[in-house]
Design a protein that fits this description.
- The complex is a heterotetramer, with two copies of chain A (about 140 residues) and two copies of chain C (about 120 residues).
- Chain A is built from four helices and five strands; from the N terminus they run βααββααββ.
- Chain A has helices at about 15-30, 35-55, 90-95, 110-115; strands at about 5-10, 65-70, 75-80, 120-125, 130-135.
- Chain A has a five-stranded antiparallel beta sheet, covered by helices on one side.
- In chain A, helix 1 (about 15-30) runs antiparallel to helix 2 and helix 2 runs antiparallel to helix 4.
- In chain A, about 45% of the residues are buried.
- With about 120 residues, chain C is of the alpha/beta class.
- In chain C, helix 1 (about 20-40) packs parallel to helix 2 (about 55-70).
- The radius of gyration of chain C is 13 Å and the shape is globular.
- The N and C termini of chain C lie far apart (about 25 Å).
- Classes of the chains: A alpha+beta (about 140), C alpha/beta (about 120).
- Chains A and B meet through strand 1 and helix 1 of A and strand 1 and helix 1 of B.
- Bound molecules: adenosine-5'-diphosphate (ADP) (2 copies).
Chain lengths: ~140, ~140, ~120, ~120
Amino acid sequence: MTKNKAEIKMTSLSENIGFARMAAATFAAQLNFTLAEIEEIKVAISEAVSNCIIHGYENRTDGTVVLNLLIEDNRLIMVVEDYGIGINDIEEAMQPSFTTSEERMGLGMVFMNSFMNEMEIESETGKGTKVRMVKIPEKQE
Amino acid sequence: MTKNKAEIKMTSLSENIGFARMAAATFAAQLNFTLAEIEEIKVAISEAVSNCIIHGYENRTDGTVVLNLLIEDNRLIMVVEDYGIGINDIEEAMQPSFTTSEERMGLGMVFMNSFMNEMEIESETGKGTKVRMVKIPEKQE
Amino acid sequence: MELVFEKKKDTLFVTIKGELDLHTADELRYKIDLHLNNSGSLKNMILNLRGIDFIDSSGLGVILGRYKLISKRGGKLGAVAVSPQVKRIFELSGMLKLLSIYENTDQAEDAFDISGF
Amino acid sequence: MELVFEKKKDTLFVTIKGELDLHTADELRYKIDLHLNNSGSLKNMILNLRGIDFIDSSGLGVILGRYKLISKRGGKLGAVAVSPQVKRIFELSGMLKLLSIYENTDQAEDAFDISGF
Ligand SMILES: Nc1ncnc2c1ncn2[C@@H]1O[C@H](COP(=O)(O)OP(=O)(O)O)[C@@H](O)[C@H]1O
Ligand SMILES: Nc1ncnc2c1ncn2[C@@H]1O[C@H](COP(=O)(O)OP(=O)(O)O)[C@@H](O)[C@H]1O
């Protein structure tokens, strides 16, 4: 498997979080990931897509969440994007336990960071947010 | 679940047939389908995506297959599209056991037709092919 | 997600099956709180997580919120059949310090002093 | 897809696990044909399909092709542990007329006259 690409555009409905997870896990299975690594991928995608829905679109269900999956050079690259409210201060948002929602814990970014080899965020207020994550199988083929 | 939509664009690689199947099955699970119906959906998607790869792109791996999934009024609508060679004579192509590949059986369209409530094909030679399928859960909620 | 509730003495047993994410979090929160609110005598909670296929920070948030409710009543929180995956999530989030983990229901019942009920 | 091959007298047993579609069809075709070509004495084939999670017309095509090879040798094709899903696919395609279905390996071995080998 040298190069493969899938782009998924989906409605900002919470039903689609599980769908995104399953899609990412199935796509990732083309690489030599362990089951534990697949679980990590599922958590990272779940956090990223949930953030688009809760924060980016403030739970509106008429938004679009885009999940880009790419396999290249034995690495999985996942980009999750929304066209929602954006993040004012990315550094602040990345702080463990920082959250703008009262009932939440500010752990989403912590999990993405812990479970992925690379993670970076681009965002523009009022335009939207893009999270790029890279996962490399620990056991090389 | 009133309305939900997902669009998946993927490379024309045979690895992605299983991916498309899993994505369609997971998305479909939002409706009240039986396990047998989910299996039928998997077969129909498998046939449609395989056709894009083998016939539409003649096994070239640089094409794009688009899978559109839509849930509306308790129906699952699936559209599978390629931008490949197209079909000259759709009526002929739909005939059971008609095939243009020596090693194949001409059963793909038969399975799509048998397993879906509706199926229709649009195609233009040199432009590509679009298969639209509708599946309605037999047990209504 | 499937939920089974059971009361033993002052402890609420909750068996959770399925995936625990943003989509299912509201239902879990609502249904546990219904039991806690309906019965002021409930102090402790034990979660049976054997059937949990997935949990993320949204699911964890519900558990943490319930921990806070129970703490206010002077009760404690236990979890049974915690998979390595879930344990890791508990660890990263600091939840591991807030709850006790048991191999099986019997052990949890012993620890919560409700065996034989 | 996982394949296990076993020879008993003039019969090739093939146990197939996994998903049988365009992506795995080539491998299945190649590996069965390798066994058939390496051993001219093989006449019959019995497929154990207990582990088949999925099959579509591409997978079916491989089976039909092998049926033809075997028929040329005067042999016959059997299948064991055929799920309702797979059976329906066999039915729609006409394959059901070409092969015999058995509940389990013992029954198939009896029918193919290779028990005890
Ligand atoms: N897609 C997004 N759009 C807008 N804001 C976001 C997005 N993702 C994260 N944020 C901001 O970053 C904060 C921290 O996110 P996170 O670590 O996932 O924790 P939580 O979701 O629990 O708040 C959020 O509370 C929110 O303010
Ligand atoms: N996406 C497509 N692009 C071009 N031709 C197609 C496409 N799908 C089907 N066809 C044509 O229709 C024929 C019948 O298709 P099908 O019933 O699926 O059988 P098979 O795939 O076994 O040939 C194919 O052999 C091919 O000529």
